[in-house]
């Protein structure tokens, strides 16, 4: 009795009170919701509590798994390696060696490094190769050694050239020995510093943060011209590519070879799992949209991401922002282009949230959950009865109440439907149509005169003639 009266109270981390009784520790009821600290959660789930909540009502499905709990074949299939590229072999050679060592189907890398250049080369395996394009266009950081051709009176001249003049958008032409066409191009230098200069040996160490496709060799030549002595690049190392740098689990070719050997001999996955990281590490800097489990497979099949499937969303999303769609378990589903801002997502009850740019997840990892609603069931019945055509489009027998109640989201601006069953077709201005992909490419709109069957053989013949001419030109 006395022990109960002298129950000790201590404050819980979430602000509630934990009471120590003779029975044990008990949590007192609190009027506020306790906070969940997610700052230590892995990959895309980090700071999950900071995301805005659209709804918390959804049915979790037992399929799928956390990126860190995948089976080894899946881990390799959705894996990336932050490789310390050795000097002398080309990037292509290194990537093909890794493909052979790990026995995977596909490999790709984050941007070519010259044979003599060392450092960060992100190698993507199998499904992760879908992120290669995004990684190639990501910013890069380098540390290099510059050799001047003559003695320099004042080091500040070189420092001023590197840190002030050679910044921003610069004209660059690829070096004489180059695999690409030597065309003048514009590349941006975001930041650069002269770290050290040895006046006796005329060697300078510099750091540069630049746009993808920048020629650091050309930058060194320009620095030499600015100080009036001439110069060239002596040595170069990439220290960061996109979000991954030297400190982010960088491994060597020996690590990759040893990890696979250890697994083959002892079936110990630990070393291999440390060398190969989940592809989600490349997407941690993207704004996140959390998707209901029932919507995942539809997105994998190419559906637009609509408001009813949204669970949580990040702050600061603007129209046209690249976002990552993720599951509640932290798996990346796809990279998409946002069609709504954060404010609209919080208030709107219908519409397209994001258009899919690149699907990452394989199909049918999650079960199909579309076509199970009341409207979808009614549509199937109408198709069976012949009141809709086989593609689900209205015909003469379609009931008028279906035409008014059914909204077709496949059309960007659906026309206001009256009782008539005829579909209104919108034609773009000037006889041109724009690709739905968001590209700026335009092509002539198809009309009856151009798309007739009579012209088809003629077009085919013209195409063959063009191909023959092209082949002949290549042979010459």
UniProtKB/TrEMBL annotation:
Residues 411-421 have a biased composition (Polar residues). GO terms for biological process: box H/ACA sno(s)RNA 3'-end processing; mRNA pseudouridine synthesis; rRNA pseudouridine synthesis; snRNA pseudouridine synthesis. Pfam families: DKCLD, PUA, TruB_C_2, TruB_N. Residues 384-476 are annotated as: Disordered. GO terms for molecular function: pseudouridine synthase activity; RNA binding. The keyword Isomerase applies. Residues 287-361 form the PUA domain. Keywords: Isomerase, Ribonucleoprotein. Residues 37-95 form the Dyskerin-like domain. Residues 458-476 have a biased composition (Basic residues). Residues 384-394, 439-457 have a biased composition (Basic and acidic residues). The keyword S-adenosyl-L-methionine does not apply. SMART domains: DKCLD, PUA. InterPro entries: Dyskerin-like, PsdUridine_synth_cat_dom_sf, PsdUridine_synth_N, PUA, PUA-like_sf, PUA_sf, tRNA_PsdUridine_synth_B_fam, TruB_C. One of its GO terms (cellular component) is box H/ACA snoRNP complex. CDD domains: PseudoU_synth_hDyskerin, PUA_Cbf5. Belongs to the pseudouridine synthase TruB family. PANTHER family: CENTROMERE/MICROTUBULE BINDING PROTEIN CBF5 (PTHR23127), H_ACA RIBONUCLEOPROTEIN COMPLEX SUBUNIT DKC1 (PTHR23127:SF0). This is H/ACA ribonucleoprotein complex subunit 4.
